[in-house]
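Researcher: Quick one. two chains, 311 residues in total.
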Amino acid sequence: MMALNSLDRDILNLLQNEFPISVRPYQKMADTLGIDEEILLERIKHLKDSGIIRRIGGIMDSRSLGFYSVLCAGTVEEDRIDQVAQRISAEPGVTHNYRRNHRLNLWFTLTAPTQDQAEIILQNLEKELGITVHTMPAERVYKIKLSLPMQEDYYVD
Amino acid sequence: MLTETDTKIIQYLQGDIPLETQPFAQLADQLGISEEQIVKRIQSLYEKGYIRRLAAVLRHRQAGFKVNGMVAWQVDEDKADKVGRLFAEDDQVSHCYWRQVPDSFGYNLFTMIHARSQKELTDKVEKLSQCQDVKDYVVIESLQEYKKTSMKYF
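Model:
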């Protein structure tokens, strides 16, 4: 269990929303928060070590970069779903893969340089694994922004 | 068009920005340009939309958001834009898409909702449903995470 204090919460909110594009981004953030850069770096390191922060980096736009990505779902027998899921996860273009509580019980996202390449990967998976993969490409994107609001004090695992 | 320097910068930003006072110094060294030039390139990649933002990505569970529900809604195509935009405004909705879906599935508007508890999720879904009068939906929760990573483009 780790308790987040109010400084941690401010840091997490800022890091999720306004990481400065600057030669010294942490100094800028520290100024915003009114603390020393050294203390900020220490707290962020702590938040990373504790596992709350997965990564601090760039979030790219796959479409702008010319890539094709698609949400996929299939129905897999429960007794072999782990095995099937592991094979699917082995594809480098598969970034998310979850077992879910629906008739379609395996959901994953695939990103590939072109739609053709994505389709070939999926066809090969279908053949190899004996499953049917339904594709659900985005018609419109209204929002892609994960920013979890850190508010009042609470304990987290 | 992306230059070779651009792809190298994107490659670098796909990983972790180091926790150092000058996190781009090493990259600048490698590429033989100044840190200021790196930052300028990043700014330009951001303005052109290749980079959505620089940010921390949290592990939901550790951050206290234990429940993540993929909620798929059945919305008539002529209403999808309006409902999609409004759902997207909610803080706890991280992703909102209108998708082409197989007829056998039928739910075409997708939202990913993050909540601290089952009740919070249920309440949020209920609220979204009522405020947009979308009654037909399915809450699909994750039972197991097999993979979650960020794409390596280059």
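Chain B has a mean pLDDT of 94.
Researcher: Thanks, that's what I needed.
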